[in-house]
Every structure is written in structure tokens, then in C-alpha cells.
Amino acid sequence: MKKLCLLLFALVVSLAAFPQADKGFIYLKNGTILKGKYSYSSDQKNVSVFTAGNLWVFSRSEIDTIAAKRVGDCRSAKPLMPDSKFFYRIELGVLVGNSDNSQNAPFSMTGSINYRINPHFSAGLGTGIEFLKESFLPVFVNFEYKLHQYPSSPYFFLKTGYQVPIEESNAVYYDVVPDWISYWPWPGTSGTQSLDSKGGFLINPGIGYQHMFSPSFGMNFAVGYQYHRLNYSGENDYELDIDYNRLTVKLGIIFN
Fold this sequence. Notes:
There is one protein chain. 23% of the residues are buried. It is built from one helix and 15 strands, in the order αβββββββββββββββ. Strand 1 and strand 2 (33-40) form a beta hairpin. The chain has one helix spanning 2-17; strands at residues 22-28, 33-40, 46-51, 54-59, 63-67, 86-96, 107-116, 121-131, 135-146, 152-165, 172-174, 192-194, 196-214, 217-233, 239-255. The chain is mainly beta. It has two domains: 22-76, SH3 type barrels; 84-255, Porin. Residues 11-20, 73-82, 176-184 and 186-190 have low confidence and may be disordered. It is elongated and about 80 Å long.
């Protein structure tokens, strides 16, 4: 199950990491109009245009505007922005914990689809997989607030939802028998008992930094604090709660 999930996630990341080039009409300030594929440099200062078999590189100061469709008057062209208000974020990272824990840094990968309510604020839904004592499917709502409208900007986020178990529990309950019971003539009830995993609540606030390499593709780095409580149940109404307090460290990709 874990290998299959990792393979599927790697495939999604590979496909998303190489999006198709954006196409449009590039209006230069000298009056020239070019039609072709274009992409921004990593520092957003230059634009590469591939047209008619030739590759041209222009400074942003040489470009008047970029439009999705040809218009009669360059001055009426609008800057090319993502057509959809939806964007997707896929993140890969670890949940860093205490060295005394049985798992110091469980692996985590999540993906979310988000809706831009305004240029700064967005909300969405997400899921993924996290390998704790068992494999869990986190299902969460995601809220983000971006500080700037520039290609590079810090942002705040809040994820909250539920960890859904997707495999049998590895937790075991060890019965505790007091010493005095050994003096009684009948045998005690010592032993072990497997527990059923029920999942539990999670909350993950944090801060990140993202950079858009083009209107449709970017990357981000994020750190945060994640708390979740995993619930287990056994025979005779026995219940066990395990609390996780973790530092999340993740890298992600963004695409429209």
C-alpha cells in the first residue's frame, strides 16, 4: 500500500512539475506583436518567447502587455492572468517530532484544490497520506492568506480536519497486573490486546513562501505546527488517545 501511494504521488508530481508552456500574444512597446509560447525567467525580469521556430528573450521593460487573445488595439489588451480562480497545491515533507517518539519524522504528502476568493485570500479542500503508527488519510479544509500580489510572496495557512486510518492498527495495549495478584490462588489476566484505530482530529497552522515562475506554475516552502490526536479502542470499552505535536516542513508545487 505504501509503495503504491508513493508511486502514484511521484507520478502526479512529475506531471505537474512540467506543465505545458503558456501561449499568447506578446505586445512589445515598439509596436511589434508576437504570437507563440512564452515563459518567465526565475527572477521575473525577462520573458522568453518561442515563435516561428525562433527563441527571443525580452526584458520586461520592452513588453507592453501579454494577452490570451489577439485584439485590434494593443492598448485594450489586458495582462494575461490565470483563467481559472482555482489552483492546486501538492506538498511533500516530514512531521518532525521528539527523538523519544517511536517515529521521529513521519513522511507526509498532501494535495489540495483551492479557490481564490480575492487576490489575497483563498479556501479549499485537501487530502493526502501520512505514515504515523499506521497509514492515515488526512482530509482537511485549507485556508490561505497571501501578503502580496507579486510573483513572490509570503503567505499564512491553516489546515484543519480529520485523520482517517487506511490500514489495520499497529498499536498494542499491554494489560497491567498489580504485584499482589500473584499471591492469589487463581491466575491473573496479564497479556496483550490489539487495538482498532479510529483516526482523530488534526489542526495545522503555519507560514510559507511561494514563487510563481509563470502565471500557471510555481513552488513553495512552508513550515508549521501540526497537532493531531489518534484514537484507539479495544475490548471491554478500552480506549487510548495518542497526541502528536509536530513541526511540519514541506516543499510544494502550485499549478492552475
